[in-house]
Design brief:
- Helix content is 36%, strand content 14%.
- It is of the alpha+beta class.
- The chain has two domains: 1-43, no CATH class; 45-198, Beta-grasp domain (Ubiquitin-like (UB roll), Roll), CATH 3.10.20.30.
- 34% of the residues are buried.
- The protein has a five-stranded mixed β-sheet with strand order 4-3-7-5-6. Strands 1-2 form a two-stranded antiparallel sheet.
- It is elongated, with a radius of gyration of 23 Å.
Amino acid sequence: MKVPTNETSKSVCPYCSGAFDSFEELKLHVLVEHQGEPLPKPPGTVTLTVNDRNHELQVEPETTLYQVIHDRLGLTGVKMFCDRGVCGSCAVIMDGRPILSCMTLASECDGAGIETAEGVADAGHPLVESYIKHHAMQCGYCTPGFITTAKALLDRNPDPTVEDVREALGGNLCRCGTYPQHPKAVLEAAQILKEERSK
């Protein structure tokens, strides 16, 4: 019995997706057209800069940014509360704006810069100490999401009003009900940053 061959199969260039009748033709094409170029990333590869550290990871299409940060990179500051994008516990900063990592696909973040609560704390941001001073947490589960969201606010608006803070943090939920303390903590951190800039 003769095994059928697929005469329409082509060798595909990993650089430009050009199709060639033989592997030898593909090799010649790569040597002539793509010599010295770095190999393209395999499908499903994302490159992220998380807290100033570069990571290259293989991800499935349905993998969320939360799963990458929490489960793969071990940064447990990002929390899973609702898994529906309504509580803010999974908030991180991506390229300067707060996002919900449980609702963001990792594949959409290729090349992005991500900052988590660990990164905010490692940088010595005054938000961390002001949150402690003003008792802006009880159980602390929601605190990383509040802090990253507040930092994104202060990065874009260094002199916010109480209303600015309330509006920015409006998507973050606290089961312990510490809401009155958050504006105090954020405004104090803003004042500390302002004093540091004036030195």
